[in-house]
Every structure is written in C-alpha cells, then in structure tokens.
Amino acid sequence: MDSSELKSIIQGIPKAELHLHIEGSFEPELMFEIAHRNNIALDYDSVESLKKAYQFNNLQEFLDIYYTGAQVLLHEKDFFDLTWAYLTKVHRQNVVHVEVFFDPQTHTDRGVAFEVVINGIHRALEKAKEELNISYQLIMSYLRHLSEEAAFETLESSLPFKDWIDGVGLDSSEMGNPPSKFAKVFQASASHGYKLVAHAGEEGPAAYIWEALDLLKVVRIDHGNRCLDDAALVQRIVEQNIPLTLCPLSNVALKVIQKMEEHPVAKMLDKGILATIHSDDPAYFGGYMNENYYETAKALNLTKDQLMQLSINAFEASWLSPEVKEKHIAQVKDYFRASSK
Ligand code: ADE
Ligand code: ZN
Fold it and tell me: Which residues does a 6 A CB cutoff place in the pocket of ligand 1?
C-alpha cells in the first residue's frame, strides 16, 4: 500500500475516539485567540515560538506546558470553543463517536467554577450530536498528583451534573501516584453510577495496571503499554477482554517508546488484546485520529485486516449500547469489504 492509498483508506474508516483530553486538543492558534480576548499574556510571543516549546523528554515535561496552556480558559465560551474546534476537526476525519476526558481540577483550582467548565463542554458536545451526528460520552478525570481528598471534592462538585457525565478517569503524573491512592474515591464514584477508567502503565509499572483493575475496578485501561512486562497480566487482560486505549504519537512524543517502529500495538493484537488507537493530546503530539492511524500503520506495516480490527475494537471498547456498537461495526466491515474490491 502506498502512502496516499493508506491515507485515503484511513480517512474513510468510521472511527471512535476513546482517549482524548479536551485540554490536550488546545491548538496554539486558538490558545492565542482566547488569551487575547481574556487579556492574559502567554509566555511566548508567537504561535511558532510556542510550538517550538513542544519538545518533551517525559510525561511531566509535557504536563507542565499543558497545564500552563489551560490557564487561559476562563469563561463558558472558552470551553465551548475549545470543544467545538476539536469536534469539527475530527468530524472531518470521519470520527463518529467520541469519549472525551476533561480535567475539572485544572480549572477549579484557578477559581473557574465547575459549572462554567462543564456547561461549555456539554453545549459543544450536544451541538455536535445535533449538527455533526457525532455521539459522545463525557469522562471526568481526577488529577493523580493531587490528593484523594481533592478528588472527593471534585466528585461532590460533579453531582449536580451527573446526568451529563458518564464516567471518571485518572490522569496526570503517574510515577509515585499509584491507583491505590484513589481506591476510595473510585468506589464512591461507582456508587453514583459513574463508569471507571484509569491511565496506567504509560510510564508506570505493570503493578499499577494490576492495581487499576483490582483496586479501582476499572473497565478500561488508558495506555497500558507496560502490561507486556508481565505475562500473567496479559493473560488476565485477554481473558477479561479489558480494552487498552493506546496513543502511539503520544508515546513517541513523551518517549514512552523511542520510535514508532517499536510501538507494541501489533504485538498486542497478536496476543488477542483488545487494543485501540487514539490521540490523547493531539495539539501537542502532532496529530489527531487519522495521523495516529497513519503513522502507526506506516511504521509497523499494518495490514488492512489489522486496521479493520483496530477500528472494530474501538467500537467494541466504547460505552455505546450493544445495538449501536453492532451497527458501527457492521459499517466498518462493509467499508473494508468495499475498499478491497
Ligand atoms: N493528561 C493529559 N494527557 C495525559 C497523559 N498522556 N498521561 C497522563 N495524564 C495526561
Ligand atoms: Zn491520556
């Protein structure tokens, strides 16, 4: 397959995005525009100089810049514009379902009310459902570098909006902040009806994936790369069909792997893991869904069957109803059948 054929196949696949931090979709151009209208000075004098700073050696170096960028978001319209920009972008990439993370504490700790954040995000998601036919779920992430007590306060603030929130996640600095630190707040979140996911095994060890499964009782693992260090864990993940939401361009940008050719996704598919591909923080890592599929497929020489499997897996791993999942999976199969003629 040459690169233009590969790009065109990927463009046409109906796709589901299950691992996307809305704050990580904040493109520099929009950041400057919102900073300007909110009278906030950025540390960089142009879009180009900001983009030059996007060179990371690890997760923490990225997070420092990511949290700084989010500081220009103040008003409901800012959160709406951020979310709408992401949704229109991925609509053009034929993404038909999204499960979006937001980090309330990044904003509430700066004095921005929870309701301001969620009103803006929710309004954009609803507009996309109506106008772009994109279905969605919304996931509130607890920041793991903060305390469990702070996560409990966030849980409390979310309750008036619980009909708008489908699940909770766990993100931010992984090393030294194991899932076990959040066992009680995850249990409490489940008691309010939230579904559970957690980032684990991105930089942290396989032991953190065990903890996320056994102590937090998550239904999906975000990243999970390090499961391959532990054969018993792989067996568990395969037997229980636990999805791993992988983010290849993120892994290269944060040096979780040294180069795309080393990405474990093909190995994971071979082992029978329900692996999926997503974009994590596309504005920072060089690409959205299509670019993640393309760079991975190119580096690993993925076959059309593997691309189809990845696309099906994402719907399988989603929180859509069984009937809607089936409909999307049938469309993916039809698409590949037609494209191989
Ligand atoms: N927050 C945003 N992106 C993240 C990532 N890749 N890992 C942990 N926390 C994050
Ligand atoms: Zn992530």
Answer: 21, 24, 59, 171-172, 199, 202, 250, 280-281
**Nearest ligand, measured from the Cα of 60:** 1
Mutation choice for ligand 1 from 62, 143, 292, CB with most ligand atoms inside 8 A = 62
Active site residues: 202
Domains in the chain: how many in total? 1
Using pLDDT thresholds of 50, 70 and 90, give the confidence band for residue 1.
Answer: confident
Radius of gyration of the chain (CA): 19
**Whole-angstrom distance, CA of residue 114 vs CA of residue 104:** 6
The domain in which residue 167 lies consists of: 3-339
Give the bridge partners for 138, in sequence order. 100
Q: For ligand 1, what atom is nearest to the CA of residue 172? A: 9
The CATH number linked to 170 is 3.20.20.140
In this prediction, residue 61 carries a pLDDT of: 98
Among candidates 7, 9, 4, 20, which has minimal Cα distance to 276? 20
pTM (global) more than 0.85: yes
Q: Which residues partner with 168 through β-bridges?
A: 140, 196
- Rounded to an integer, what distance in angstroms lies between the CA atom of residue 64 and that of residue 62? 5
Quick check: 187 pLDDT over 90?
Answer: yes
The pLDDT value given to residue 322: 98
